[in-house]
Design a protein that fits this description.
The complex is a heterodimer. Helix content of chain A is 59%, strand content 0%. Chain A has helices at 2-13, 20-31, 42-84, 107-113. Chain A contains 4 helices and no strands. Chain A is elongated and about 115 Å long. Chain B has helices spanning 2-15, 19-41, 44-60, 71-92, 94-110, 114-119, 122-132, 136-147, 152-158, 163-194. In chain B, helix 1 packs across helix 2 (19-41) and helix 2 packs across helix 4 (71-92). Chain B is elongated, with a radius of gyration of 20 Å. The N and C termini of chain B lie far apart (60 Å). The chains are: A mainly alpha, B mainly alpha.
């Protein structure tokens, strides 16, 4: 079996060679200077820096403009709302001690007691 | 080890940027790498792609080469990884494989009898078809052992697996090949008897 497998594989690949194009492609690939290795001319570097600065400035101006316009519109909106709101009558609510529900804690009563209430004592309030 | 010394000298020159030295390395190992890739992939175009990518990667990682070990297993390790990537990708193209398989079966039907087929080297074809039915790991192990002539230790390094795994893959791979060949032969004989 070993002999058969070896013979079959050798016979299958006998005389096979990669085409000359393979080496040409390899050479083209390995001789291609990578982006990192390629030196950048000084004028190009300066231009890139100026371009990035300009981009930053434009972006900052845009943000500033949008922010200002937003804050202005917001301020106007608030003023307009305030002017349109009608003053409401303020009602004062007075609470009568006698209207407390039975299960509410009557602080006044507790203070009047001047001692610790017994459990459930506060429930007995009129 | 004059061969290893020669490789080490070439690697040293490649590290200094000598393309001629790399070409010498390519000339020395291209056939071996290409034939191994072809035996695994069973596709000439794929084998060329694998060979090309293998040498490009080797050039890019030449600084990682250990000059004390032979260059062949290292190159085959790259080729095996690339072959595995190709194999994974080609599995998705199942329709293409199906067409290929149908074509092969049709050509088999054309041959008259096992005796004639044997004369035409049909046994070889049956074995290669059986080899193709194996999984990548077993197929690569068998190709590296029988075609590449690598030792089991070298195959363990190439396929990045323990030595015991290589031994078992080889054993079970061989067993499966034998069964496949027997099955195909039995099938062919039955067809002849039916006729």
């Amino acid at each position: 079996m070993d002999w058969v497998i070896r013979q079959a594989l050798h016979a299958e690949t006998e005389g096979l060679e990669p085409s000359p194009l393979v080496w040409q492609r390899i050479r083209a690939e390995i001789q291609k200077p990578s982006q990192a290795e390629r030196p950048i001319p000084r004028w190009l570097a300066a231009r890139r820096r100026a371009a990035s600065l300009l981009q930053g400035a434009v972006l900052a101006l845009l943000v500033l403009g949008v922010g200002l316009s937003f804050s202005q519109s917001l301020g106007q909106d608030v003023l307009m709302r305030r002017s349109t709101v009608e003053p409401k009558d303020v009602k004062t609510q007075t609470v009568d001690d006698s209207s407390y529900p039975q299960d509410a804690l009557n602080v006044g009563y507790l203070m009047h007691l001047e001692r610790q209430p017994e459990p459930g004592e506060w429930r007995l309030l009129p | 080890m004059p061969d290893r010394a020669e490789d080490a000298a070439l690697v040293e020159r490649v590290r200094k940027g000598d393309v001629r030295a790399f070409e010498a390395l390519y000339d020395k190992y291209k056939t071996m790498v290409f034939r191994t890739a072809y035996a695994i992939a069973h596709d000439r175009f794929a084998a060329e792609e694998i060979t090309q990518d293998c040498f490009i990667r080797a050039y890019c990682h030449m600084d990682k080469v250990d000059a004390s070990i032979p260059l062949g297993p290292w190159l085959h390790r790259i080729a095996a990884n690339l072959s595995y990537n190709w194999w994974k990708a080609s599995r998705r193209q199942w329709l293409f494989s199906l067409e290929k398989a149908i074509g092969r079966e049709a050509s088999k039907l054309g041959s008259d009898s096992p005796a004639v087929a044997a004369q035409q080297g049909e046994t070889r074809q049956i074995l290669l078809d059986a080899l193709e039915s194996l999984g990548f790991e077993q197929r690569a192990t068998i190709v590296l052992f029988y075609l590449g002539g690598f030792s089991m230790e070298e195959i363990a390094y190439i396929l990045d697996c323990p030595l015991g795994t290589v031994k078992s893959r080889l054993h079970y791979g061989r067993q499966r090949l034998r069964k496949e060949v027997e099955r195909i032969w039995r099938k062919a004989t039955e067809v002849v008897y039916e006729i």
